Amino acid sequence: MWISKPYKQFQIKSDLYFKIDSEFRAEGIEIPFPQRDVHFRSSDVPSQNISPELINSLSNLSNSLATWLKENSHNQTRQDKNKDIQSNKVIKKENSTPNEDDISH
């Protein structure tokens, strides 16, 4: 498609895509999302053909992921404890008896 205002190409393209989508929806036309499922069976990949470099890389990746998960679960636990402490402070404050300044006469 040729346009007379190339600087507006992205707006024109966007408008065109929205118009096509609108017309397709009005006519009940659906375009399926392309996908492919790939299934690996462990027996399909002989372990003796895997390079030591790949095994080492996968091992390092696994160790890094385990370390990251451990650190972040610890951080999450700390954040949860801080939230609990703050919640308890709010609850205690709400349940405390009002002082003279809080009561309007």
TrEMBL record:
The organism of origin for this protein: Crocosphaera watsonii WH 8501
InterPro entries xrefs: MscS_channel_C_sf
SUPFAM superfamilies assigned: Mechanosensitive channel protein MscS (YggB), C-terminal domain
Region (Disordered), start-end ranges: 71-105
Name of this chain's protein: MscS Mechanosensitive ion channel
Superkingdom assignment: Bacteria
Basic and acidic residues bias: start-end ranges: 71-95
GO cellular component, one term: membrane
